[in-house]
Design brief:
30% helix; three-stranded parallel β-sheet; alpha+beta; 303 residues; single chain
Amino acid sequence: MASENGIHTTTSIEECLKFGADFAVVAVNKGDIAAISRQWLERGLPVLCETPAGLNLADLKAAARLQKQGLKLMCAEQYMYFPYFSSVIRLADKGILGAPYNITLSAVHDYHAASLIRRILGKTEEPFKIYGRAYKFSVTETADRYNKFFDGRQAVKERVRLTVEYADGKAGFYDFCSVQYRSEIRSNYINIQGPKGEISNNTVSYIDKDFISRRKELVFGENNSKISFGDEILYESPFGALLADDEKAIAQVMVNMAEYTKGGSDGGNLKAALIDSFYSIKMKEALETGKEVCGNPKLIFEE
């Protein structure tokens, strides 16, 4: 790292602490995130940790206790800050669809999906039930994180379909296969419905104030640096047009963390991340047991 990037690099925690950093970013194996985050927090340094915030209820409860003790911990859940997702969240919040009552999401996995589903349906600590199953299908691979493929290689991939239901009748429909993140022959899909309309990918269908049905497309600027709906700007990047969507979102998370360390609020970040991780735990349980599973996020915050 030091030779390739020309930056000071160390494996010593004590040396890191001497630099007087604003906060530590913990980006390690999922199974170690909780323990490593505590290690830095106990040394007095605020922490921005990778997702998920924990892999079991004990880790989630421990993180909640740390924040109660006044230690500053945030989780880098970034998808709500993606230009597109930020735009549809804002549009749904405006009430153009009425109150959204269901969402079909085939774009991101596990806790990331839980974050978007809950945010759009307006759910926090409400109990839920979840059920579904996994399927296996063969797909031609076109790319992975590092390479593109042109040899026609195929692999069997798991596609997961889950339904999340709430007592008030609202529902989230989760559909995801890991190849979606990079495949050139698999697309993402989102559909949000309310009593007055729906958002289906980039198309918004709705009833206007005169009860006339309308249909408009979202308009995208260069590299998604701006997204508009009619004359209204739903998203405008504070970081310019050069960054990829993921980098724009991560940059916003870093800005939020910096403000938190300077005395601002975490905006409910950690609580939301703990609940998202709890959903992910229950998603896994539903798939492993093949049964309907009930979850109550309030368990995280009980002593």
